[in-house]
Write the structure tokens for this entry.
Amino acid sequence: MRVSLYVTYDLGYGIGLNGALPWVLAPSVMENLTHKTQGKVIVLGRKTWETYGWRLGKKTLVMSKTHGKLDGATVCTKIDQAMQFGQGRYPELVVVGGNQIYQAFFPYVTTIHVAHLMKRHECDTCFPQYWGSDWERTHHVQSMEESMAVNFSTFVKG
């Protein structure tokens, strides 16, 4: 099962403040997320689901050890369960957060889609900086929205 990751972070790799995004997602970020997840299953943690999941409108897997059932989503307690769910039915799982879910799935990720906000925000949670020589940037586009630049990049593990 192919696994990719989609993350939006700021200049300091910040991704959250008090369990929520510390910014309003620009339309270009939402369009990019929609494009990158088209026809795929998104995977997110329970806290992220409670905050944003119902708005994503995709086939959704929620990783949770405490919830057995959620309206509009399939609950998985283990990574292999999520992988088995998608096998043969969907081309890819796309992990969209939060931080613990990013870390748990990272060993399986072969592609990372980044929306890099060119501004620093107050954050208490940062995306782990996994970048190394084994990741190659294969796509890069800049966008300017509401006085903030956003760099969209795709990294593929070599």
Remarks:
- The first strand starts at residue 2 and ends at 9.
- Strands lie at 2-9, 14-16, 41-45, 60-63, 74-76, 92-97, 109-117, 125-126, 135-145, 148-157.
- Residues 2-157 form a domain with the Dihydrofolate Reductase, subunit A fold (CATH 3.40.430.10).
